[in-house]
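Supplementary Methods. Inverse-folding protocol.

Structures were first reduced to a discrete structure-token string of length 280. This string, shown here, constituted the complete conditioning input.
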């Protein structure tokens, strides 16, 4: 039986914060979670969806000091507001943090240095980069420790993110690069599904059948990869009979420099991540 997690606050339980919340509650390991949202409607929707005695959902329009109270209630404080709102929020909660509280960023492009500058000296900060499959418990989350984060702090925060997927520990200098692979990666997969669906329609299939073929092929291939643990190149070889139809199709994709396309695409994303971090 996995141990219970420390008390947790999620300040700004929007799309990503809400996804982490779903993972936490589904895991059964949350010993107490407090979340904040701007509106009463959002706060009540979370409470209704969770139906959990371990969850307190605060509406800031009802309780303007709710972020401070939520932060004071928790040993792990996840910051899920928009990046531009982060400094003011940190200033607001800094006087209320518990000794030894771990403050964890969900905000893209906001550096650990920014967090540490707005929090008390010696504050324990970690920067995370989850991705959207957190909603279904299949996230990849990059996790980078701040200057005061000990291995025990990293392990505790890692356990939070493991409730909604896999975790990769990296140095902060790798967070932007990780975002170009796992952070943006779901969009690349969805784009490939879109294009394969269009190819099916062009070959005379109806939209519904085309989508079913394309989507279930990706879902099935991913499930096979997961279930077997095999190298994807080996699984590809098993589908690719010598002198067969798949071999001919794969050759066309390789002739189109697919490797170069993915390299250039992720490089472009990395350039933009650095621009955003610089405020551009």
């Amino acid at each position: 039986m996995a141990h219970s997690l420390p008390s947790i606050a999620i300040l700004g339980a929007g799309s990503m914060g809400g996804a982490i919340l779903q993972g936490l509650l589904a895991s059964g390991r949350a010993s107490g979670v407090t979340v904040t949202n701007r509106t009463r409607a959002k706060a009540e929707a979370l409470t209704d969806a969770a139906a959990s005695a371990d969850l307190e959902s605060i509406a800031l329009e009802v309780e303007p000091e709710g972020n401070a109270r939520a932060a004071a209630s928790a040993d792990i404080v996840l910051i899920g507001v928009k990046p531009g709102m982060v400094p003011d929020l940190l200033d607001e909660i800094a006087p209320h943090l518990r000794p030894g509280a771990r403050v964890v960023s969900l905000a893209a492009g906001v550096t650990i240095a920014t967090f540490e500058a707005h929090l008390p000296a010696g504050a324990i900060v970690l920067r995370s980069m989850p991705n959207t499959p957190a909603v279904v418990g299949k996230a990849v989350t990059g996790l980078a420790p701040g200057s005061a984060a000990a291995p025990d702090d990293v392990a505790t925060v890692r356990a939070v993110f493991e409730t909604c997927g896999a975790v990769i520990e990296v140095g902060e200098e790798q967070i932007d690069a990780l975002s170009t692979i796992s952070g943006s990666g779901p969009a690349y997969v969805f784009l490939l599904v879109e294009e394969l669906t269009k190819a099916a329609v062009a070959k005379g299939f109806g939209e519904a059948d085309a989508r079913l073929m394309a989507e279930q092929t990706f879902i099935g291939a991913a499930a096979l990869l997961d279930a077997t643990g095999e190298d994807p190149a080996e699984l590809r070889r098993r589908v690719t009979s010598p002198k067969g139809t798949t071999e001919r199709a794969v050759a066309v994709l390789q002739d189109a420099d697919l490797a170069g396309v993915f390299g250039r695409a992720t490089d472009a994303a990395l350039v933009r991540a650095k621009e955003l971090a610089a405020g551009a």
